Amino acid sequence: MSNRYVYGVVESDTVEFETEAVAGADRVYTISHRRLGAVVSDIDTTDPEETDEDAQIHDDVLREIMDYDGGTTIVPMQFGMAFESDRALKNVLRGARPAFRRALNDIEGKIELGLKLVREEDTDIDREAIETEVADHLEPIAAQSVENDLFSDRLVLNRSYLVDADERESFDEAVAEFEDDHDELMVRYTGPFAPYSFVDVKIGAQ
């Protein structure tokens, strides 16, 4: 288990705890370089297989990190980032340092929430009116939002929202209020997630 599997990047304050981690590991810890820290666990490969179980564990560990020590901002990595040595990982932190710093500043104290609206069968929906109403309800509370793919004919809206953690309750209430007004729609409200949709730092595993 000499390789390092990366969940994301935080400020250099040390994150360390025992938990169920990817590929059977049982401890998460930080490898730091100049005020940045990669949160990792040990793994025996640099090309981990993305099983449903480990994909869920990856997300669960990210949530634990977000809750760590009263709240920790993390730039999340997609599943599968693994490095053969601490040195290789520190080289990545060094090379991408400005991008990580910008991303940490952009998402500090914020969470990602997801909203999907699905029309009931055999109902007609004015998609544009729904989009406008959702925007009026939610955009004033969210820091940012992004549109995601409408992968089904019945999917009316699919958006991710970056929300300050202090505004979570207000956002929940706005979603609930919208849901109460729309029996013709199934509301699928998910999160909190690490803010995948609002960071764009690409690194190569080694």
Automatic annotation (TrEMBL):
List the keywords (alphabetical).
Answer: Gas vesicle
Q: Which family does it belong to?
A: Belongs to the gas vesicle GvpF/GvpL family.
Q: Which GO terms describe its cellular component?
A: gas vesicle
Q: Which domain of life is it from?
A: Archaea
Q: Which InterPro entries match?
A: GvpL/GvpF
Name of the featured protein:
GvpL/GvpF family gas vesicle protein
Q: Does the entry feature the keyword Plastid, yes or no? A: no
Compartments, as annotated in UniProt: Gas vesicle
GO biological process per UniProt: gas vesicle organization
